[in-house]
Amino acid sequence: MRDSSLIKACRKLSKKEWKFLERLVNSPYFNTDKTVIRLFEILKKDHPEFDSPRRLKKELVYAKLFNDKSEYDKNRIYPIMSNLKGLIDTLIIQESLKKKPRVQNQLKLDWLQVQDDHDMFEGEIVKQIRNLESRQELSIEDHEYLYDLHYRWQNHPQTQRPKIKKDALLNHLWQATASKCLSLMADLHNRRQMLSEKPLLDDSSMLSFISMQNYFYSASIEGYAKIIQMYDGKLQYSEVKAWVVDHWDSFSRQAQREFWTHLLNQSGFLNRQGEPGYLDESWNLYQMGINHALITQDGYISDLVYVNMIAAAAVAKEIRLAKNLVDGYLPYLKPQFAPFTKALALAYIYFYEGKWSEDPIYLERCLDELLIYKQSRSPIVRFTLRAHCIRLRAIYDLYYTFHGRKIDLDSFDKAKDSFERFLTRNKSDSMLPYRNFLKVISRLAHLYFEDGNFSDYNSKKAKLKADVVEFKNLLFRDWFMEKVEALT
């Protein structure tokens, strides 16, 4: 029984959720089976770990449950276990519904729609429509839901059709369609920019059509169009950001988050392209996200946002704040990835703490953190790539910059070879920035090791410096330029 789906489900419940489950199990509305209550009471003693092999032995649980000295019979206990697991599923649904009022409204309408009381049905729909249309800016989801409300209303057999404004029905349909189309196009443009993909859509004709339909009275639709033009190079990042900031209060929450994410993506891309000032700009955007509570969504923080935000704070020399962010946002990480995500974030902090304070002890802590990270075999590929990069940078700074002595290159070469093997197994185009990083840091280490002891040293140094400036999609360009300039 220890490894049953029931025990796995129980183990995932928090202390608060466990209390809710107890109320659910004891509620006659949800459960009338007293053996399910007894099973819950037996298992309650082992919450939250459920790691006692003896107490959770299926025969022992069976004996406690039935107390009639009968032999273990899985056909007798399994239905009870299944019923308790079903109550856990009910709890999960109920708790999820609390966070989704729109789903609750839809379920209420589903029920009213089949009742023989059209006035109640119509009254509920009119109330929901007025609540939504009173908002200053409607999101894609708002327009979709308004279309659904008008459609339900119009197609109810007892509805007087002239009541429904068909232009409102069509308006919400077109608004939702146009917004969703532009949002998808913006996402495709970002991906194409990162991976050098060919265009999948005829942007000019699509934007012209939307413009002709006069949809730009919607700030979010105009915003998506500007984001696409930014990715196409037709508008400057600074122009688009200024426009988004000016219209910020008119956007829905979802649109705010999407525009903020696109600005973050573009600032990161421009930084990798070598545009000056965009490393600091990323931190400015994360501060904007913190101030407007955009960092978390539905009670969670993306592992990528978590690491990038903390790394951006550390780059901006906000070490103390970066450490506060580690613990402050840790509860919002998905538990299965939290250890890997936190370890990588700390490695970034120790790396930059060593860089800014010129104290090698922090770089040693960074390498210790990454050694543990490597041994734990993180399932997040992009984080493994990051770990390899920061490990090579930390080794370079620790042995070359701080220790100021030549070493046998064993540590560096082992780390480089490990990274090379990992990249060989991952041939995706998205690995290009990491391949470029490996090429450049290998050449940098070679030049430092040789220390000018060969005839074409100066020409190789000049070539490396030029490549650092000109390489497209190069990670940590500023760091490389600093190290090349430091070469003798």
Compact description:
The chain is mainly alpha-helical.
Helix and strand topology:
Blueprint: H1 5-11, H2 15-25, H3 34-44, H4 58-66, H5 74-98, H6 101-113, H7 118-133, H8 140-155, H9 166-195, H10 203-212, H11 219-231, H12 237-246, H13 253-272, H14 278-291, E1 296-297, E2 300-301, H15 303-315, H16 319-329, H17 338-357, H18 360-376, H19 381-402, H20 410-425, H21 432-450, H22 457-470, H23 477-486
Antiparallel strand pairs: 1-2
Helix pairs in contact: 1-5, 2-5, 3-4, 3-5, 6-7, 7-8, 8-9, 9-11, 9-13, 11-12, 11-13, 12-13, 13-14, 14-15, 15-16, 15-17, 16-17, 17-18, 17-19, 18-19, 19-20, 19-21, 20-21, 21-22, 22-23
Features:
488 residues, two-stranded antiparallel ribbon, 71% helix, mainly alpha, single chain
Shape: flat
Mean pLDDT: 85
**Biggest sheet details:** 2 strands, antiparallel
Q: How do the strands line up in the largest sheet?
A: 1-2
Query: Approximately how much helix is present in the residues?
Result: over 70%
- Helix/strand class: mainly alpha
- Total strands: the figure is 2
Structural Rg: 29 Å
Percentage of residues in DSSP E strands: under 5%
